[in-house]
Amino acid sequence: MIYARIKAFVERLAPELVCERCVTDRLGVSAERTLGVVLHELAAQSEFERQIGPCALCGESTQAIRCKGR
Ligand SMILES: [Zn+2]
Residue 35 C-alpha to ligand 1 middle, in angstroms? Predict the structure, then answer.
């Protein structure tokens, strides 16, 4: 399930930010709309947050998400 894969991916990089494009690239998420929905759901949980910032993988400052937990 793509939701679980994205969640695990962001958690693995915690507490670093990862941008939406890197999530797409690394996980091969084909539908951008799907990614948007998943990120929206993750951001609704207290341990995740979306923010503009430098991505840990590509270094670009753009819309990104991170896991605050651990
Ligand atoms: Zn990136």
Answer: 14
Going from the Cα of 46 to the center of ligand 1, the distance in angstroms, rounded, reads 22
Place of tokens 């539908």: 31
Q: What is the pTM of this model?
A: 0.89
Given a contact cutoff of 8 angstroms between Cβ atoms, the answer to whether 19 and 62 are in contact is: yes
Ligand 1 mean position, distance from CA 54 (Å): 8
How far apart CA 58 and CA 37 sit, in angstroms, is 22
Q: How far is the CA of 56 from the centre of ligand 1 (A)?
A: 6
Chunk the chain into consecutive blocks of 10 residues (it has 70) and report each block's average pLDDT, rounded to whole numbers. 93 96 90 86 95 97 90
Q: How many CB atoms lie within 10 A of CB 30?
A: 10
